[in-house]
C-alpha cells in the first residue's frame, strides 16, 4: 500500500499507545501490498454501492490479494460485503474465532 495511505491511516490514531503499536506492526511487516488498477476499480465499485472510501479500499485490496479472511467489527461493512458478494470470506473476529475453535475439535 502506498506510504501516503499508511501515513493517513496512522494519523487517525489519537491514542499514543495504539499509535506506537500500529507503527511497530507496520515496521515489522515483511510484505507490502500494492494498489493495482484492478483493486482501484473494485474499490470504486464498493464505494458506488455504499461502502466508505477507506473500507472499500481495504476490502478491494484484501480481495485482490486473496486473503484467507477479512476480519472487521463493522457490521455495516460485513453486511455490504455479503450483499456485494465479495470474493473472499468476511467475518466478525469473534464469529471467525468461534468457527476456527470448533473446527479444531
**Overall tally of structural domains:** 2
Q: How many strand elements? A: 2
Give unreliable regions as ranges: none
Distance between the first and last residues' Cα: 37 Å
Order of helices and strands: HHHHEHEH
Mean pLDDT: 89
Beta fraction: under 5%
Given the structure, what is the number of helices?
6
Radius of gyration: 15 Å
Helix fraction bin: 55-70%
Largest sheet, in brief, is: 2 strands, parallel
Structural class, by secondary structure, is mainly alpha
Sum up the overall morphology in one term: globular
Strand order of the largest sheet: 1-2
Can you walk me through this structure?
- With 105 residues, this protein is mainly α.
- Helices cover 64% and strands 4% of the residues.
- It folds into two domains: 1-32; 36-105, no CATH class.
- The chain has helices spanning 3-11, 16-28, 37-48, 53-64, 75-83, 93-104, and strands at 70-71, 90-91.
- A two-stranded parallel sheet has the order 1-2.
Amino acid at each position: 500500500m502506498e506510504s501516503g495511505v499508511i501515513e493517513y491511516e496512522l494519523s487517525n490514531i489519537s491514542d499514543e499507545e495504539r499509535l506506537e503499536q500500529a507503527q511497530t506492526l507496520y515496521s515489522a511487516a515483511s510484505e507490502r501490498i500494492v494498489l493495482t488498477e484492478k483493486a482501484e476499480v473494485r474499490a470504486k465499485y464498493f464505494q458506488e454501492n455504499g461502502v466508505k472510501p477507506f473500507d472499500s479500499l481495504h476490502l478491494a485490496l484484501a480481495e485482490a490479494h486473496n486473503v484467507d479472511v477479512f476480519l472487521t467489527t463493522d457490521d455495516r461493512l460485513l453486511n455490504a460485503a455479503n450483499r456485494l458478494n465479495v470474493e473472499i470470506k468476511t467475518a466478525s473476529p469473534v464469529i471467525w474465532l468461534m468457527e476456527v475453535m470448533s473446527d479444531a475439535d
